[in-house]
Amino acid sequence: MNKITKAGIVLGSASALLVGLVAGVSAQTANESAQIAGTARAVGSTIELHINNNGKVLIRGIKVTGVSGNVVSGTIAWGSYSLPISVNGASVTRVARRFGGTAAVSEISAGDFISVEGSLDQTQSALTVNATFIKDWSIQDKAATFSGTVSSVDAASNSFVLASRQRGSITVNVTASTTIMKGNQSATFADITTGATISAVSGTWDTVSNTLTANKVRIYVNERLLNRRIFEGTLQAIGGTTAPSTLTVQVGNTTYTVNVAPNTTLITNRWNATTLGAMTTGNKVRIYGSVEANNTGTIDALVVRDVSLK
């Protein structure tokens, strides 16, 4: 196979057009070229251009100069030479991020470095590639999972800062499609509070800005605290004398709201049936029930025993 090599470009004999392209590369300073090559290497890309006899093209290290619709313009440089390249992304089958995640042509920006696979468009006078695959080395997002403690919450932007065990402080953005769980129960953004432990938050991590767009957030709950058990304390308030109603009960240093449903059993110290109307504030009560996963300050009561009532 006849080949022409110039400025680090290996050309097959598929088209004599390419000889003119190489002859038309523009001069630039060695410093500019070194800057481009250094930036490309910094994001993980090499500088390469391969065109086979069958017109298949592989180019790495294109610096993007502009994007218009599905057309990406850029240059590739060696030494004191740079070559303009046009990439047609209309028929691209996949656009990838640096770490393999899926992207789109619309996410490519001027200044990015891309690699391209495709075929040579021999109808164009300038070097044009009909791309089937584009990798943007500058979109440094990857799938990731972190855990840690919430250090702050910004309700206005639906985001929080996670003091992660893996990567320090990470800003986590929560969207309408983010699934939030508290223990094994569905939760909302309001359940993410400063000091809460996040057992796992997964999504797309931008390694440059250290920002995670969350797909799923799991707030840690000690499952043993959700088990049904007896709470003993002092009755501080009665929400109403007919169920459903609520009681406010001080248990140690914690004040609980106790949900009393129509099927909650109300009894005296001697296990006789009683009513909410018979109870008074200051009475000692024992409650059998469980705290809610989404609100550990609320007890769903199965039995309320007023031990002050005989």
Descriptive terms for the model:
310 residues, mainly beta, OB fold (Dihydrolipoamide Acetyltransferase, E2P), 5-stranded mixed barrel, 2 helices, disordered N terminus
Describe this structure in words.
- The protein is mainly beta and 310 residues long.
- The protein contains two helices and 23 strands.
- Helices cover 6% and strands 52% of the residues.
- Strands 5-6-7-10-9 form a five-stranded mixed beta barrel. Strands 11-12-13-17-16 form a five-stranded mixed β-barrel. A five-stranded mixed beta barrel has the order 18-19-20-23-22.
- The protein has three domains: 4-136, OB fold (Dihydrolipoamide Acetyltransferase, E2P) (Beta Barrel); 141-221, OB fold (Dihydrolipoamide Acetyltransferase, E2P), CATH 2.40.50; 227-306, Nucleic acid-binding proteins (OB fold (Dihydrolipoamide Acetyltransferase, E2P)), CATH 2.40.50.140.
Short description:
The chain has 310 residues and is mainly beta.
Mean pLDDT across every amino acid position: 87
Hey, roughly how much beta strand do the residues contain?
Answer: over 45%
Parts with pLDDT < 50 across at least 5 consecutive residues = 1-20
Q: Largest beta sheet: what is the strand line-up? A: 5-6-7-10-9
As for the CATH topology of the largest domain, it is OB fold (Dihydrolipoamide Acetyltransferase, E2P)
Topology:
Blueprint lengths: L3 E3 L2 E3 L5 H7 L2 E2 L2 H13 L5 E4 L4 E13 L2 E8 L2 E8 L5 E4 L15 E8 L7 E9 L4 E14 L4 E6 L3 E6 L5 E4 L2 E2 L10 E10 L4 E9 L9 E10 L6 E7 L2 E7 L4 E4 L15 E9 L2 E12 L4
Parallel strand pairs: 2-4, 7-10, 8-10, 13-17, 14-17, 20-23, 21-23
Antiparallel strand pairs: 1-2, 3-7, 4-5, 5-6, 5-9, 6-7, 9-10, 11-12, 11-16, 12-13, 14-15, 16-17, 18-19, 18-22, 19-20, 22-23
